[in-house]
């Protein structure tokens, strides 16, 4: 990896819930969900912490459904202004590492650490420093994916949560991303997954090895077909864009 680019994808774990636990440390060992706390319990959960997730409580589940699993969950009202503030704080820390940062959303960012990594023995040491500092100093757990491009770094960050550090190398895609269900591929939502399933593509390997590229373009459209096919082979030439 040292010969090419080194991209980190920083993905904050259960970000909204983590922010609330940061503000209220007494919630640390409890099942916490962020959702509007209406009387009918019909509100959709925006972010369950990992204690809640381990019980089977998921994002987009209603509070009422979650309380059937665990009637003692703590429901916290969302505070988006606060989450934006915390996002700015952790992004400010990341800029101490490198200025080559592209913020993907309120709780994730890509870092091109190709030059920064030359100053340390191993990129994993840098990733551990970032993760440990965010977790211990800022009370914000994160997972970090490392790859030669943004796509593989993004896929790697999803591999182990919470507090994972994972490297996906292009030469190992047959062992890392190819066995995954096509729905686990970044960029493939439910509608695209259904389209791919309809032509016999059920795993990322199926997409990479699909024999009829013209049919793939017909089903997905030329642009999406080209992007997803290249990603399935671990290819992604897009740059980390600090101005995006």
Explain what the structure shows:
This protein has 244 residues and is an alpha/beta fold. It folds into three domains: 7-14 and 80-171, Reverse transcriptase/Diguanylate cyclase domain (Alpha-Beta Plaits), CATH 3.30.70; 16-76, MutS, DNA mismatch repair protein, domain I; 174-232, Orthogonal Bundle (DNA polymerase, domain 1). Helix content is 39%, strand content 14%. It is built from eleven helices and eight strands. The protein has helices spanning 15-23, 50-54, 63-69, 80-94, 123-136, 150-157, 173-176, 190-198, 204-208, 213-220, 222-232; strands at residues 7-12, 32-34, 47-48, 74-76, 101-105, 108-112, 142-147, 165-167. The strands form two sheets. A five-stranded mixed beta sheet has the order 5-6-1-7-8. The model has no long low-confidence stretch (mean pLDDT 96).
The residue fraction in helices comes out at 25-40%
CATH fold descriptor of the largest domain: Alpha-Beta Plaits
Gross morphology is globular
* Overall domain count: 3
Subunit arrangement of the protein: single chain
Q: Would you report the number of β strands?
A: 8
- How would you characterize the largest beta sheet? 5 strands, mixed
Can you name the CATH architecture of the largest domain? 2-Layer Sandwich
| Total helical elements | 11
H/E order of the elements? EHEEHHEHEEHEHEHHHHH
Q: What topology, given as strand order, has the largest sheet?
A: 5-6-1-7-8
CATH class of the largest domain, named Alpha Beta
Average pLDDT: 96
| Poorly predicted ranges | none
Mind telling me the C-alpha Rg? 19 Å
Terminus-to-terminus distance: 25 Å
Determine the CATH superfamily of the largest domain.
Answer: Reverse transcriptase/Diguanylate cyclase domain
């Amino acid at each position: 990896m040292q010969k090419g680019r080194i991209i980190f994808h920083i993905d904050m774990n259960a970000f909204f819930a983590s922010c609330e636990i940061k503000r209220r440390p007494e919630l640390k060992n409890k099942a916490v969900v962020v959702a509007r706390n209406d009387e009918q319990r019909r509100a959709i959960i925006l972010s369950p912490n990992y204690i809640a997730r381990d019980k089977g409580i998921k994002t987009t589940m209603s509070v009422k459904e979650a309380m059937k699993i665990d009637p003692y969950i703590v429901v916290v009202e969302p505070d988006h202004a606060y989450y934006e503030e915390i996002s700015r704080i952790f992004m400010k820390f990341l800029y101490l590492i490198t200025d080559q940062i592209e913020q993907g959303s309120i709780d994730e960012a890509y870092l091109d650490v190709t030059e920064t990594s030359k100053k340390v023995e191993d990129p994993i040491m840098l990733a551990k420093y970032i993760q440990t500092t965010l977790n211990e100093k800022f009370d914000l757990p994160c997972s970090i994916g490392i790859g030669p491009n943004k796509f593989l770094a993004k896929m790697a960050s999803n591999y182990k949560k919470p507090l994972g550090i994972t490297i996906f190398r292009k030469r190992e895609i047959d062992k890392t991303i190819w066995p995954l269900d096509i729905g686990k591929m970044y960029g493939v939502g439910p509608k695209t997954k259904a389209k791919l399933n309809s032509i016999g593509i059920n795993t990322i390997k199926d997409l990479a090895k699909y024999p009829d590229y013209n049919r793939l373009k017909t089903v997905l459209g030329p642009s999406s077909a080209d992007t997803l096919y290249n990603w399935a082979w671990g290819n992604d030439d897009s740059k980390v864009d600090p101005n995006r």
